[in-house]
Amino acid sequence: MRPPLRRRATRPRLRPRALPPRLLRRKAPGRKRGMPPRRSSAPPLRTCVQCGTRAEKGRLLRIAGRPGAGWAPDPGGKMPGRGIYLCRDGDCVARFAARIRTQKGGARWKMGAGGGELADRLTAPVSDGTKK
After folding, report:
1. Residue 115 and residue 33: Cα distance in Å, rounded?
2. What letter would DSSP give residue 67?
3. Could you give all domains of the chain from N- to C-terminal order, each with its CATH number?
4. Which of 30, 71, 81, 98 is 20 to 30 A from residue 18's alpha carbon, by CA?
5. Radius of gyration of the chain from Cα atoms?
6. φ/ψ of residue 12, rounded to 5
7. For the chain, first and last CA: distance in Å?
8. Cβ distance 100 to 106 under 8 Å?
9. What's this model's pTM, rounded to 2 decimal places?
10. At 6, is the secondary structure helix, strand, or coil?
11. Residue 84, helix vs strand vs coil
12. Among 103, 125, 123, CA closest to 115
């Protein structure tokens, strides 16, 4: 005769284990997993580094650059590298240019010796490309 099978000594559960809240949500029928579709068509927002104003990306001036490669104004927003955004307001641009001319301001944005050069380019009068 065979010995009886031994069962593990476990405590019986008094109530079933509760599901976490994320598993309790109902899923839409026919919906696949993954990222949900973007519902809003709001344009991307950026913040001016000088005054802190939030505005649409196209309304701000972008300064693009990489540490060691230098910084340059990027009006089209297509240059590679990190971007700094400024209001197109002359006051914001002038105050930012004055700020990066200082040693501390140039170090803040890792501009090095190119900070003064960029400040000169930002404050230079803008030509519209037409001859007079």
Report:
1. 48
2. T
3. 45-123 (3.30.1230.10)
4. 30
5. 29
6. -70, 140
7. 113
8. yes
9. 0.59
10. coil
11. strand
12. 103
Please report, in tens digits, the pLDDT of each residue of the chain (132 residues total).
Answer: 677 777 666 766 666 777 777 666 666 666 566 777 667 778 899 999 999 999 999 899 998 887 677 788 888 888 888 888 999 888 888 888 888 887 777 777 676 666 777 888 887 765 444 444
Q: Give the integer Cα–Cα distance in Å for 129 and 132.
A: 10
Phi, psi of 126 (to 5 degrees): -90, 130
Q: Which residues contact 87 (CB under 8 A, 6 or more apart)?
A: 48, 50, 51, 53, 55, 60, 61, 93
Which amino acid does the sequence have at 34?
Answer: G
Residue 82's SS3 state is strand
